[in-house]
Amino acid sequence: MAARQKSMSSSLMGTLAASCLLVTALWVQREAAVPIVSHCSLDRANFQQPYITNRTFALAQEASLADNNTDVRLIGTKLFRGVNMTERCYMLKQVLNFILEEMLLPQSNRFKPYMQEVVPFLARLNKKLGQCHIECDNQNIQRNVQNLKDTVKKLGESGEIKVIGELNLLFMALKNECTR
């Protein structure tokens, strides 16, 4: 009887050990699949400044009056297609960087006085997101950002104006996806 209890006890301990090992392996695998997002947040106070909010929206409004292409939306649901909620701020950082470097800085002499106030604000946000990165497969993000870039380049000057006309959408996307 004692031998039988010892045998069952050993069997139970073996099963318990195997179960713990399996649970640990599954936990490690799940953790590896979850993207690690670092420093991808902005302080909500950045978006609660009425003056810069009004300037951003006024700039977008002025540029949208010059936008003749109403069939294309750059900053919208299509941009986020296939991107996890936890990765959206990182993607917006990529979009913001492109818009600043390729569109706003070269166009800084247009849409005065708004551009001279909005560009430095967006540059500060971009700098605050400078350490934002993810450690996972970001193919969907890169594809979506590249599609945006390709669309803007294909539209030419109209694409540049459209980007400026959608700065209000970028502002709101950054506020919604990057603040906690």
Automatic annotation (TrEMBL):
Keywords: Signal
Signal peptide per UniProt: 1-33
Keyword Signal: yes
Nucleotide-binding listed as a keyword: no
GO cellular component: extracellular region
A Pfam family of this chain: IL22
Protein name (record): Interleukin 22
Lineage of the species this protein comes from: Eukaryota, Metazoa, Chordata, Craniata, Vertebrata
Gene transcribed to yield this protein: IL22
